[in-house]
Write a structure and sequence with these properties.
Chain lengths: ~230, ~270
């Protein structure tokens, strides 16, 4: 099945993520992305590779509308992200699990409370939310450390906690920006194994990384960026 | 801070409410006493009374004979012995007149006319003090309303700033919550509750301060009132007024929070 903006298939089976001639220019004239087009089917695992400044973070920020495109169309689950109203963004983001290089954890809260945060504005009952939080912590191997504050966790554990928070709402897409950047090779591989495990149960995964060795260890699709454009 | 600021107008309002008891006890309508010459006979007085009753500008006329006046004076505490010591009744016959005109110029003209009537020795405007007290109370009410408006703005400003600091303190949490799908309404709600709660607590504290202050003042007021044979006490606000103050201050707190959240929450953009 083709997956493009003009495809009639969109109406009955939308591509999960579709970029069509997307440009992103920052104030001051710097170009983050230059006419990027690609599609991602549901259930794919995709590495977004490239050197620092290639446009990987910009690309990933455009999907949950943290940044808006200067031109072009971005479809996520059939929604034109660039045209979404501000009030609709939270509902888009709840279907996306985001993992950041700097984790963005609440350092004055326990691991359990960090994972509970996305559930606090869901419609789940308290008991179900607690059950899901513990299940997410268990999946990343942190259930035993649920009372620990992030500062008491190692770099790898902090990243696993960020993943638990990202998946607790059972998103259809998991987006991770340089999740292994500050980790040793063993911890980085362990983190990637977690992403692969989620992908195997149907979650679409996008991982931005500049670590070619790591990419080489997994036979997955690679979107390679250079100077704001896709090179292969 | 909010409680202290709100206690000023709330206390002023309570004092004025108590003062209203006094002014309501006294007639605020002009009431004049027309004292007759001592040598004026009863027939002349009756004619004068008929003349006053027929005047359309006069709403009520009451004759107080010199004998009745002396009796009333004797009944006054501490004056019985003085009156008993008098050789003769020094009091004149009098009319108590209530004019019907409201215009100051017309009142002045009527007073001048009554002074010129045969047999009238003096016209005394008895209710002037009550009128002045009423006017003073009106001015005080206006001053308290202005003070309340000023301090209400202060309350909004205090809440605005408190919520601003709270937003800055929780900036990271707000930013992360936005990133992972929290709506603006979800993020705003606790700040609104905080602002309203702050206002509510301020209003309740203001009432407690006013209650305590009135209780302390009443110790002295009661002693003073007893010496005048009165049971006057400063009253605390009634339940309706007290509730209004608490709810109003909660509303002001909410308004301050709303302004602050609208101003600063939008500034937190995701990067």
């Amino acid at each position: 099945m083709t997956c493009s903006l003009s495809s009639p298939a969109i109406s009955w089976r939308p591509c999960l993520i579709s970029f069509s001639s997307v440009f992103k220019r920052y104030p001051g004239g710097q170009e983050g992305l230059k006419g990027v087009s690609f599609t991602i089917e549901p259930g794919q695992f995709v590495f977004v590779a490239g050197h620092s400044g290639a446009g990987k973070s910009t690309l990933l920020k455009l999907i949950p509308a943290i940044e808006r495109p200067s031109s072009g169309v971005i479809l996520v689950n059939g929604q034109n992200v660039g045209a979404l109203k501000r009030s609709a963004l939270p509902y888009l983001r709840r279907n996306l699990g985001l993992v950041f290089q700097d984790q963005k954890l609440l350092y004055d809260r326990s691991a359990y409370d960090n994972v509970m945060l996305p559930l606090s504005f869901s419609e789940l009952s308290g008991r179900e939310a607690a059950r899901r939080a513990r299940a997410a912590l268990e999946k990343v191997g942190l259930l035993a450390r649920q009372k620990a504050k992030p500062i008491q966790l190692s770099g790898g554990e902090q990243q696993r906690l960020a993943i638990a928070r990202a998946v607790v709402n059972r998103p259809s897409v998991l987006i991770a920006d340089e999740p292994t950047a500050n980790l040793d090779a063993e911890s980085a591989a362990a983190i990637l194994d977690i992403f692969v495990a989620f992908n195997q149960v149907g979650v679409t995964v996008l991982v931005a990384t500049h670590d070619e060795a790591l990419i080489g260890r997994f036979a997955k699709r690679v979107l390679r960026l250079a100077k704001g454009g896709i090179v292969e | 801070m909010i409680g202290i600021a709100l206690s000023l107008p709330a206390g002023g309002y309570a004092l004025l409410s108590s003062l209203r008891q006094v002014t309501q006890g006294a007639s605020l309508e002009p009431q004049w006493s027309l004292y007759l010459h001592l040598e004026t006979g009863r027939m002349e007085a009756d004619a004068l009374g008929a003349r006053l009753k027929s005047d359309a500008r006069v709403s009520a006329v009451r004759f107080v004979s010199r004998e009745q006046a002396l009796k009333e004076l004797q009944a006054t505490e501490g004056l019985a012995e003085v009156v008993a010591a008098l050789n003769r009744n020094p009091l004149p016959d009098a009319f108590v007149v209530r004019p019907q005109v409201a215009d100051a110029t017309a009142l002045e003209a009527l007073a001048k006319e009554l002074r010129a009537l045969p047999g009238v020795a003096q016209v005394q405007v008895d209710a002037a003090w009550a009128q002045r007290l009423g006017a003073l109370a009106g001015t005080a009410r206006l001053a308290i309303a202005l003070l309340a408006a000023l301090l209400a703005s202060g309350l909004v400003a205090i809440t605005f700033n408190t919520i601003r600091l709270q937003i800055l303190t929780q900036r990271a949490e707000i930013e992360i919550s936005k990133l992972i799908g929290a709506t603006d309404a979800f993020i705003r709600r606790p700040f609104f509750y905080l602002g309203a709660l702050q206002g509510l607590a301020g209003g309740a504290l203001a009432l407690a301060i006013v209650w305590g202050s009135l209780a302390a003042l009443n110790l002295g007021v009661a002693e003073l009132a007893v010496s005048y044979g009165s049971s006057f006490r400063l009253m605390f606000l009634n339940l309706g007024d007290a509730l209004t103050i608490v709810l109003f201050s909660a509303g002001l707190g909410w308004a301050g929070a709303y302004l602050s959240v609208s101003r600063y929450l939008l500034e937190i953009e995701l990067k």
